[in-house]
Amino acid sequence: MLISCVAYQEGRKLADIPVEDISEYVSHKDCFVWVALFEPTPGELDEMAQEFSLHPLAVEDARTGHQRPKIEEYGDSLFAVLHTVERDQKTAEPSIGEVDVFVGPNYILSVRHRTRIGFAAVRTRAEHEPELLRHGAGFVFYALIDNVVDRYFPVLDDLETRLEGAEEQLFTSTSSAKKIENLYALKRELMTLKHMVSPLMEGVGKLYGGRVPQLCVGTQEYFRDVYDHLARINNSIDSIRDTLATAIQVNLGMINLSETEVTKKLAAWAAIIAIPTLIAGIYGMNFKNMPEYEWAFGYPIALGVMLGFDLVLYFWFKKIRWL
């Protein structure tokens, strides 16, 4: 559906305009139109494509959705795919959204898919900075990307907090399988964020260095700032990933250590049981001429020998920490 359709001139808002008047305002060099859509129907998207003369390949990407984050150049216009991540209110699971942005010399169109949080704050911020809004659609494009990137920081902070909690649980009695499950859940979310950030870094890097698109001329320093934020997030992701890998290895090592301790205890008890079994087995063979069979105190002596050997073994295993 249509969220807003506003015309601007010289950095100031002119008016909310109907969709059918877009092409008229776009034809004025000192004006630009900013339109926001949420989960548009094919008909609404086709109408915008006609009003703004959007490239059909970009329109097809926006209609299909589920695109990889990217920034593409089509003549004097740009098309960007941005991914957002939000927590599902019911399940608390991460929900991945998509924002498709069409940018031209005097228009910008944002199309949101599967994301609850819109860009009303971006519009408010831009309208309160008319000296920056005079840069036109290029500045609005920066403001949208900057807002999406800023949403990654709380997600990253949450992952770091959860990782710290998982590290504290490594040496507790919690189930090892549950610990590994939690660590791998963190790893999946981290890699999802990585797949959002890395391609976007590549795209944003082209907006401030080298052959900068004409739309972004005059706003390169703003896109460089976004790139710095993305680089910082990317470095943090790599650091967390290394820590996660270490935590998983430590947990697997703890499992092996636990299994070794169990094996030691089983071996110790097996040795303690083996001595009485050996003696009882020898004297249970029922041969007629076996020595000591006629001893009056043979039975208590045999029990005493069994107990003596077992006590020696028990205290020795205790000393070497096998029991």
Architecture blueprint of SSEs:
Layout: E1 2-9, E2 12-16, H1 22-26, E3 31-38, H2 42-52, H3 56-64, E4 70-74, E5 77-87, E6 94-104, E7 107-113, H4 120-127, H5 130-133, H6 137-150, H7 152-168, H8 176-205, H9 220-282, H10 298-319
Parallel strand pairs: 3-7
Antiparallel strand pairs: 1-2, 1-3, 4-5, 5-6, 6-7
What would the principal axes of the Cα set say about the shape?
rod-shaped
Strand % is 15-25%
Helix and strand pattern: EEHEHHEEEEHHHHHHH
Q: Give the number of DSSP strands.
A: 7
Properties at a glance:
single chain, 323 residues, alpha+beta, Beta Polymerase, domain 2, Methane Monooxygenase Hydroxylase, Chain G, domain 1, seven-stranded mixed β-sheet, 10 helices
What would your notes on this structure say?
- A seven-stranded mixed β-sheet has the order 2-1-3-7-6-5-4, sandwiched between helices.
- The longest helix has 63 residues, at 220-282.
- It contains ten helices and seven strands.
- Among the domains are: 1-127, Beta Polymerase, domain 2 (2-Layer Sandwich), CATH 3.30.460; 258-319, Magnesium transport protein CorA, transmembrane region (Methane Monooxygenase Hydroxylase, Chain G, domain 1).
- It is of the alpha+beta class and 323 residues long.
- It has helices at 22-26, 42-52, 56-64, 120-127, 130-133, 137-150, 152-168, 176-205, 220-282, 298-319; strands at residues 2-9, 12-16, 31-38, 70-74, 77-87, 94-104, 107-113.
